[in-house]
Amino acid sequence: MTERRQAILSGSVFEERIGYARAVVDGDRVHVSGTTGFDYVDMTISEDVVEQAEQCLRNIGAALAEAGSSFADVVRVRYLLPEREDFEPCWPVLRACFGEVRPAATMVVCGLADPRMKIEIEVYARRGSGAAAVPLID
Fold first, then answer.
1. For every one of its 138 residues, what pLDDT tens digit does the chain have, with 9 covering 90 and above?
2. Cα atoms in the Cβ-side hemisphere of radius 13 Å centred on 61
3. Cα–Cα distance measured from residue 69 to residue 12, given in angstroms and rounded to the nearest whole number
4. How many CA atoms lie within 13 A of 1 on its CB side?
5. 134 with 71: CB under 8 angstroms?
6. φ, ψ (nearest 5 deg) of residue 119
C-alpha cells in the first residue's frame, strides 16, 4: 500500500508567492524546504544570525511535528549562509538540536533570496521512527 504525498504549509507568504510547501511527507520520508529565520506569524526577522538560526529551528520543528516526526528523526541537514563567519556562532544552537542525533550535514556559502536572511536550514527526516524527541531551545 502506497501512502499519499502530503504538503505541509507554514503560513509563510513565500510559500504562496513562490509555489512550494514548507515540507512534503512522502511515505516515511519528510523533506523540509530550506527554512529561514522569519517568524511567520508577523513576517519579521531578527538581524542576529543566532536568533535567526533559533527561529529556523522553531519553524522546522513545527513542520516536523505536523509531519509526525521530530528532530530525533532527522537524517540529513544542510546549512546555507551568505557569510562563512556567521556559521560558527550558530554551532551551540545547532548542536542543541542535532548533537545527539548526528545527521549527515553540509554547510554551503551562497546568496539567499533576501539580504536580511543570514542562514537557511533544510532537513530530511524519517517519519514516525519512534525515537525520543530532541528538545529545542526556547
1. 456 899 999 888 888 899 999 999 999 999 999 999 999 888 899 999 999 999 999 999 999 999 999 999 999 999 999 999 999 999 999 999 999 999 999 999 999 999 999 999 999 999 876 554 444 445
2. 19
3. 20
4. 1
5. yes
6. -155, 145
- Scanning the structure block, which residue is given the C-alpha cell 514516525? 128
Q: How does DSSP assign 12-57, residue by residue? A: -HHIIIII--SEEEETTEEEEEEEESEETTTTEE-SSHHHHHHHHH
With contact defined as beta carbons under 8 Å apart, do 26 and 5 qualify?
Answer: yes
List of E strands, 60-119:
74-81, 104-109
Q: What are phi and psi of 50, to 5 degrees?
A: -65, -45
Whether the Cβ atoms of residue 89 and residue 126 lie closer than 8 Å to each other: no
Task: Identify whether the C-beta of residue 71 lies closer than 8 Å to the C-beta of residue 64.
Answer: yes
